[in-house]
Known about the structure:
By secondary structure, the chain is an alpha/beta fold. The protein has one domain: 3-Layer(aba) Sandwich (Rossmann fold). Helix content is 41%, strand content 14%. It contains 7 helices and 7 strands, in the order E-H-E-H-E-H-E-H-E-H-E-H-H-E. It has a 7-stranded parallel beta sheet with strand order 3-2-1-4-5-6-7, with helices on both faces. It is globular and about 55 Å long.
Amino acid sequence: MAEQLPVILVTGGAQGIGKGIAASFLDKGWRVVVVDQDADAIQACRQGFGNPDNLLMIETDVSRESEVVAAVAAAVEWGERLDAVVNNAGLADPDTGPVETLELAQWQRRIDVNLTGAFLMAKHTVPHLRKTGGSIVNMASTRALQSEPDSEAYAASKGGLLALTHALAVSLGPDVRANSISPGWIDVRAWQANAPSEPAPLSASDHQQHPSGRVGTPGDVAAMVAYLVSPEARFVTGQNFVIDGGMTRKMIYED
């Protein structure tokens, strides 16, 4: 019997950081399941990847449990196993205006997608991850650790992901490991569904805000995901890894 290839499921994987992660694991020879709500982004992503045999794309709203159940069932039927889940799906715009005028529906939608979606995906993939000694990676944000004005819903959802991560690690260990990544400024313009052929270069001052000397790329995040789901990280669980080029460690004074 031929050896089964490892399978990774990436939510929000049709563009942005998620697409970068999917591309990285396709290159590594994994079978990749991309779950995304945006049908147009799925189509563009499929065309961009050339529709390889080791890629499955499923249109899914991760905040709806019935759709998560169906997506997980389809992924496991196709891949015959599940080794890693990356909960990357989220509403990216943190600015929802002053808290005094923040509508409950806006608040709830960010919690539903960014946080509840990760819970639902964990809930329904854990039985399969137990069989493979698999791993969960939740995509949080540096905004779980520090804030800008008018970002209450986004910050709360990402902060909740950090707590969900260590709770999962304790509840699921030693069978399944759970960690989170908090990206900082990641330039995803070339990884969007409507990406320009050549995005305008970022300024020198943009890069200089980072002690590492540059703005991040989806590949930087994908490299950490690759480590966290690998056997080399088998002693790592319940942790949050900040991938921000040192930006959140740099003191910035207003003139």
